[in-house]
Amino acid sequence: MSADQRKDWDTYFMDIAFMVSTRSQCPRRHVGAVLVQGKKLLGTAYNGAPMGVPDCSEAGCMIAEDYELVVQDGQERMVKKQRCIRTIHAEQNLLLFTDRIDREGSTVYVTDEPCWTCANMLANSGIVEVVFHRSYPKDSGKVSRMMEQKGILFRQLESYEPPRETLMTVAE
């Protein structure tokens, strides 16, 4: 990019979400989220343990496993899902630390596609758009359908390149 060329707004705000994700202490995945209204940044958040509580890097992950019946290509199969229950997701923290009035009509930029729980919370938050980079295949189909039902613009920045200093190895 030349010195006289600006980043587009999607790249600008996604870069900020990735920078925010570097605050996470989660050894499995660093996730960052930002709340934007128009071109104004209203809040940032990342995934982690509640304030004042040891995080996963100090106390280890609290992995919960469950199974979900999915239909894929006309075939039913059970899919094992693992999640850390010590961590509050970036989207949840963003909703906890921003005001409803600021969220009305806003966009959330998040490094990773929201899980089902976060998508449900975002759907009732007043936002009108979710922009993400990395997909989350475990919940992708049902999250996309729900966002469409709610009329929330839901889009992935597939060709986006995160800032190198924000990258970590992502555990699946």
Descriptive overview:
27% of the residues lie in helices and 28% in strands. The protein is built from six helices and seven strands; from the N terminus they run αββαββααβαβαβ. It has helices at 9-21, 56-59, 90-96, 100-103, 116-123, 140-150; strands spanning 32-37, 40-46, 63-72, 75-84, 107-112, 129-134, 153-156. The strands form two sheets. The chain has a five-stranded mixed β-sheet with strand order 2-1-5-6-7, with helices on both faces. β3 (63-72) and β4 form a beta hairpin. This is CMP deaminase. Belongs to the cytidine and deoxycytidylate deaminase family. Keywords: Hydrolase, Metal-binding, Zinc. GO terms for molecular function: dCMP deaminase activity; zinc ion binding.
CATH class: Alpha Beta
What is the approximate shape? globular
Tell me about the largest β-sheet. 5 strands, mixed
> Within the CATH hierarchy, at the fold level, what is the topology?
Cytidine Deaminase, domain 2
Task: Tally the structural domains.
Answer: 1
| Class computed from helices, strands and strand pairing | alpha/beta
Strand content: 25-35%
List keywords for this structure.
single chain, 172 residues, alpha/beta, Cytidine Deaminase, domain 2, five-stranded mixed beta sheet, 7 strands
Briefly characterize the structure.
This protein is of the alpha/beta class.
Give me the secondary-structure topology.
Layout: H1 9-21, E1 32-37, E2 40-46, H2 56-59, E3 63-72, E4 75-84, H3 90-96, H4 100-103, E5 107-112, H5 116-123, E6 129-134, H6 140-150, E7 153-156
Parallel strand pairs: 5-6, 6-7
Antiparallel strand pairs: 1-2, 1-5, 3-4
